[in-house]
Specification:
It is a single chain. The chain is of the alpha+beta class. It is flat and about 125 Å long. Strands 1, 2, 11, 12 and 13 form a five-stranded antiparallel sheet that branches. Strands 6-9-5-10 form a four-stranded antiparallel sheet, sandwiched between helices. α11 crosses α25 and α20 packs antiparallel against α23. Helices cover 58% and strands 7% of the residues.
């Protein structure tokens, strides 16, 4: 069956890389993405490794690039992403890149600092301009100069110089518009009403130079008397973060200052425009290459991080690495090492040496865009053990089919297929857009799963003859009422009978009433029959049992391939065979009874057909004299007793016999490991020649890291092996046996969800049609057409939201459960760990999306 049905064969290899060529070799290995590096320095702190300085330098360059990227996004400049995959720069290029990024960062920081200072100055001048204008308006409102003089002059009666006028002081400034009410109340309470406040809103928003936000402010002027009130007013303004500005007292001075402020604002605006243009040019130039810079820096960082996983020999001239890699890709890895050596200019080739190890290799399943979604479904249950059978190829067919059994509807399946086809046909364009929506990305990743689910749903919809809760009468019904009008064939119906009775039952035993089966699927006449639900209940329930038993038997059969591949005959004779006999004798026999009942009974004898449920229960109770449930065939009692006893005999075989034989095999291997000491042969061990062969084989299976292990004799090694725990093995076998036997019953019942969800989907579709669409089809006029359009929009929305999305998700989850629990647990352990190769593609994935 090839590697499609099993994970790739993996090997542990040792790489010997010259110091000057190691960087380029790891770069080439990252491009092909076929090796997984092991950490040979697990006890060494990350800050004490050889290339930690290079990693820090790469992180610093990455930080600078993120700063540049942030500035580019802030300026709303699109970043160019041509999909280019640049080559990894050489280590000597790192200094030039650091200088370039340092210069760019410093230039942007200087521009930002100058621009912020200019904007702050511009804001102050703008606020001063509004203050001068508003204060001039405040003073101009006093039309009579004598009133202005009277309002700004107070005479103290107790003052001996009562004839001398007292001038009012004032302060002017700008404050946030939302603080005006609180500011005014605070002034009134603190100054006890001895101040006079005038304020006016600045219509145009002002830009905050620090945050860049648009803020709304107001100009205020406060009149007071005396230095004490002046100090209070200034403290209150400081507490409310109001900005105070000097304002001349005479109109002439205010006009001259306003003219000077306007001139300065014009000059400052010109400088700001030039600064912004320069900043835009710098950012636009950086936006063209920032993606390429990101890729280069992160590739360099990944290479140095990988080099930190390697060992360095005592001569400091060679790096030693250990990698897991597929056996089928060894040639590609050799070519990559050769390219890396040539690129570095080294004259010493890199060496790849396969190692023998007893460690469990990682699991690696090669996938494409069609199989990757189904492989993800399998891996979500658990990563498969190394080289065990892979359920993903079988899931490509069984998963969408079981989904379609629950979701069977021709119309809904067509809508789902159309949506999936859009994603499949435009996948290149959609992939280039790099959407950030997580929900869309999830649907796009499973586009081929959705496509197959839609196609299978259309097929089951044809079988159910169900399209938006309506049947398609393509071939004409196989039922006919005309023979019932003919007294010659036993019928006694008349047209008056049809007019007076709303419910009539067609008798299939009458010749001509039933003209044979419908060509494909269910006869459309059942859509208007009152016993439609009763008929479909029986049909779909039996269909669910048949599909479930076949699916589980298929899962048990796949376990045979695992036992054969791993050369475990004991699991075949005492595991697979009893399991297949147990399930076939009970539930396989039930499926045969279903088919036999369909074939053995016709329309005339169907009333005499016994109940399969009662017959199956009586099989376990050994009750064969039930007058209410006659036998289906002759010899049923003896055959059912034989099947039951066979199933019963399989339980102790799996429970006890397997444990006993495993213990005896362990004792035999233990005695076989004993060999002669001092020329005396001990136990039932091998001869001297056999011992030499065993010792030679064991020596060849160990690496050079364990030289002291070679001195141990096979007898000593046998004693060092883990002891066989009979109690542990017995408990595990008992759990497995009980779980399997009870699981056969519970898992078979679990497949009834196919029946339940199929009926639920059909009933929801029918209710939606009768409650929504029928309202629009009841009128035949222009107003009715408009009303029908509105009703159809509501019907389409509810169909997509409830029947496609909610019901589709429910059927998806139930199909997922059937595969994980009922199917995969028969042969799939899922106790491995995933092969995670060092590849630039996975490192860069998702990092640069807009």
């Amino acid at each position: 069956m090839g590697e499609l049905f099993r994970s790739e064969e993996m090997t542990l290899a040792q790489l010997f890389l010259q110091s000057e060529a190691a960087y380029c070799c790891v770069s080439e290995l990252g491009e092909i993405g076929m090796v997984q590096f092991r950490d040979l320095n697990p006890d060494v702190n990350v800050f004490q490794r050889k290339f930690v300085n290079e990693v820090r330098r790469c992180e610093e360059m990455d930080r600078k690039l993120r700063f540049v990227e942030k500035e580019i996004k802030k300026a709303d400049i699109p970043m160019v992403d041509t999909g280019e995959n640049p080559e990894v720069p050489f280590p000597r290029d790192m200094i030039d890149m650091e200088a370039t990024f340092e210069k760019l960062e410093n230039e942007l920081k200087e521009i930002n600092t100058n621009q912020e200072a200019l904007k702050k100055n511009f804001l102050e001048l703008t606020e001063l301009k509004h203050i001068l204008r508003r204060t001039q308006q405040f003073f101009d409102e006093m039309e009579d100069p004598s009133l202005l003089e009277e309002s700004s002059t107070l005479i103290d009666p107790s003052d001996p110089n009562r004839g001398a006028p007292l001038r009012l002081g004032f302060v002017a400034g700008v404050i946030g518009r939302e603080r005006i009410p609180t500011f005014e109340r605070m002034l009134w309470r603190v100054c006890r009403g001895n101040v006079f406040l005038r304020q006016a809103d600045i219509e145009d928003p002002l830009e905050d130079p620090t945050t860049g936000d648009q803020v709304y402010k107001s100009v205020f002027i406060i009149f007071f008397q005396g230095d004490q009130l002046k100090n209070r007013v200034k403290k209150i303004c400081e507490g409310f973060r109001a900005t105070l500005y000097p304002c001349p007292e005479t109109p002439q001075e205010r006009r001259e200052m306003l003219a000077g402020v306007n001139a300065r604002i014009d000059d400052l605006q010109m400088v700001l425009n030039q600064t912004e243009d320069h900043r835009q040019r710098v950012l636009q130039a950086a936006a063209k290459t920032v993606r390429v810079w990101f890729i280069k820096v992160r590739k360099m960082k990944a290479i140095y991080h990988t080099l930190n996983l390697c060992n360095i020999d005592v001569t400091q001239k060679c790096l030693i690495a250990e990698v897991w890699c597929p056996v089928s890709d060894l040639d590609s890895i050799q070519f990559a090492l050769r390219r890396g050596t040539e690129k570095s200019g080294s004259s010493v080739p890199s060496i790849l040496n396969r190692m023998q190890t007893k460690q469990t290799p990682p699991t690696y399943n090669k996938t494409n865009k069609l199989t990757s979604g189904f492989q993800s479904i399998v891996d979500a249950y658990g990563m498969g053990s190394y080289r065990e059978i892979n359920p993903a190829p079988f899931t490509i067919i069984t998963f969408p089919f079981l989904f379609a059994v629950m979701f069977g509807d021709l119309g809904h399946g067509a809508l789902m297929t159309a949506a999936a086809l859009y994603l499949v046909l435009r996948e290149s364009r959609l992939m280039a857009q790099k959407n950030d929506n997580e929900m869309f990305n999830m649907l796009f990743g499973g586009r081929y799963i959705i496509l197959l689910m839609g196609l299978f749903s259309m097929y089951t919809g044809i079988i159910y003859n169900d399209c938006f809760s309506k049947s398609l009468n393509v071939f004409g019904s196989s039922w006919s009422v005309r023979p019932m009008f003919n007294p010659r064939v036993g019928g006694n119906w008349t047209f008056q009978t049809l007019e007076e009775n709303r419910l009539l039952q067609l008798d299939p035993a009458v010749d001509g009433v039933f003209n044979g089966p419908y060509p494909i699927g269910i006869d459309p006449i059942w859509n208007i029959a009152t016993n439609k639900l009763t008929f479909l209940n029986s049909f779909k329930m039996k269909m669910s049992i048949i599909l479930g038993v076949i699916h589980m038997l298929f899962g048990v059969s796949l376990s045979l391939f695992n036992h054969l591949y791993f050369n475990k005959p004991l699991n075949i004779y005492l595991g697979f065979i009893p399991e297949i006999i147990f399930m076939s004798s009970l539930f396989g026999y039930l499926v045969i009874l279903v088919f036999y009942k369909w074939v053995a009974y016709n329309a005339s004898t169907s009333r005499m057909a016994p109940s399969l449920l009662i017959a199956f229960i009586n099989m376990f109770l050994f009750q064969y004299n039930d007058p209410t449930n006659r036998p289906l065939y002759s010899g049923q009692q003896g055959l059912q007793i034989f099947f039951f006893l066979m199933a019963l005999a399989c339980v102790p075989v799996m429970l006890v016999v397997k444990t006993v034989i495993m213990y005896r095999q362990h004792m035999w291997r233990k005695n076989l490991g004993m060999q002669n000491f001092g020329g005396i042969r001990v136990g039932n061990g091998p001869t001297e020649d056999q011992a030499e062969i065993i010792q030679h084989d064991q020596l060849s299976q160990h690496s050079e890291e364990e030289p002291e292990h070679y001195l141990l004799s096979p007898a000593v090694k046998a004693h060092q092996e883990e002891e066989f725990d009979v109690a542990d093995v017995a408990v595990n076998q008992a759990i497995h046996t009980i779980e399997y036997c009870l699981g056969c019953i519970s898992n078979t019942a679990s497949y009834l969800r196919l029946w339940a969800l199929s009926l639920a989907h059909a009933q929801l579709s029918e209710v939606l049609w009768s409650m929504v669409m029928r309202l629009g089809l009841g009128t035949q006029s222009l107003v009715g057409f408009v009303f029908l359009s509105v009703i159809f929009f509501a019907f389409a929305t509810l169909t997509i939201a409830i029947l496609l999305i909610m019901e589709g998700l429910s059927a998806f989850l139930h199909a997922l459960r059937l595969h994980w629990v009922e199917f995969q647990n028969k042969f799939y352990s899922g106790q491995g760990f995933k092969f995670l190769p060092f590849t630039f593609e996975s490192i860069l994935d998702g990092r640069f999306e807009e």
